[in-house]
TrEMBL record:
Domain of life: Eukaryota
UniProt keywords, alphabetically: TPR repeat
SUPFAM superfamilies from the UniProt entry: TPR-like
Name this protein carries in UniProt: Tetratricopeptide repeat protein 5
PROSITE patterns attached to this UniProt entry: TPR
């Protein structure tokens, strides 16, 4: 039987089992209506304290796992689901007794987790930024708190401040997540800049640095693929070697089982194959992306290519007269991707676009 969390504001969605388990098993140290108690009489006070901190941290991890892997047909359903599950995570976090979060380090961790929970939704939330700002003041060594603060600030459009946060996070030590997020931000900062190509090269450099820290990490390869594809566009969309570099990175990303649920990986890889005229691979990629995230316009891309291939097939059969051939050539200009497609590709790579959730 699936667990449901009732709310008058949102439709019913199954709650994350792992989050519910964490919430229920913490009832012994936190009186929350509806929570299921467990026996903790054999645990010491220190063990109970460590247990509830660990469960709160895991609840946040589960929340972000949901964000990165749940793609319903209606994107609004995902936002509603995240709101519901973040409410559960906040209740779990509040299970930590006030006296156990008085010290600066403890308070810093509490503010960090609370801010990160609130920031899980796509839109900017000032409350999230406020909690994360408190966290880095109380404990400046929390690298992930700086990373989350940078992401929160990015959402409100303050790119220089976001970049400063990522740089400070990176100063705490090498970290592939921070390097990937910095790479994404640089692609956004490149948009409209006079030195676009130079900024995108920095993006590529940081993605490669992330890979050197963990060569098997699919997300790092995915970020490199996006940066290479962006480089293709900002340098005039003529250098196919950049497309090949991007395709190689995407294929390495696909080797990581954790990336199998990322629809944007398949969409972006299909886009590269389309430009390389690998139509069969492109069609397969768009179909895979559509099956994983119905909200993507992958079906439209598939139809465009089917129409293109049908026209080419008819042309090769020799049934097209010269006048008809000229008309066909003109119509193909809008279909065969001779120029960048701002709403689907160029802006989505220079901006956050198809790298929606890289945390």
């Amino acid at each position: 039987m699936k667990h449901l969390v009732s709310s008058p504001n949102y439709p019913e969605f199954p709650a994350s089992p792992s989050l519910l388990n964490s919430f229920a098993s913490s009832a012994a140290v936190c009186s929350v209506p509806g929570a299921v108690p467990r026996t903790v009489s054999a645990m010491t006070d220190q063990e109970r304290e460590e247990d509830v901190w660990a469960k709160a941290t895991k609840a946040v991890d589960d929340l972000y796992e949901l964000r990165d892997t749940y793609f319903p047909p209606n994107p609004d359903d995902k936002v509603s689901r995240l709101h519901r599950e973040s409410d559960l995570a906040l209740k779990l976090l509040d299970c930590i007794p006030p006296e156990k979060r008085k010290l600066p380090m403890e308070r810093g961790m509490y503010e960090y987790l609370r801010g990160k929970i609130l920031d899980v939704v796509p839109d900017y939330k000032k409350e999230a930024e406020d909690h994360l700002s408190k966290a880095v003041k109380l404990n400046p060594s929390l690298a992930d708190a700086w990373l989350c603060l940078g992401n929160s600030i990015w959402k409100k459009g303050d790119l220089p401040s976001a970049n400063n946060c990522f740089t400070l996070a990176l100063s705490k030590g090498p970290n592939k997540k921070i390097l990937c997020q910095l790479s994404m931000l640089e692609r956004k900062m490149a948009q409209g800049a006079e030195n676009q190509a130079e900024i995108v090269e920095e993006s590529i450099k940081h993605a490669k640095e992330a890979i050197t820290l963990d060569v098997k990490d699919g997300n790092s390869w995915y970020i490199l693929g996006n940066a290479s594809l962006t480089s293709f566009f900002v340098t005039g969309a003529w250098d196919h070697s950049k497309l090949l570099q991007s395709l190689k990175a995407y294929r390495n990303a696909e080797k990581d089982e954790r990336m199998k649920s990322n629809p944007d990986l398949y969409f972006n890889c299909a886009t590269v194959n389309k430009y390389l005229e690998n139509y069969e691979s492109s069609l397969n990629g768009f179909e895979a992306a559509a099956s994983k995230d119905p909200s993507l316009n992958a079906a439209e891309e598939v139809q465009k290519m089917v129409n293109l291939l049908d026209k080419l097939d008819n042309m090769l059969k020799g049934h097209v007269r010269a006048k008809r051939l000229a008309s066909l050539a003109a119509s193909l200009g809008a279909i065969d991707c001779k120029q960048p497609i701002p709403s689907l590709v160029c802006e989505s790579f220079v901006q956050q676009g198809h790298c929606r959730y890289a945390l």
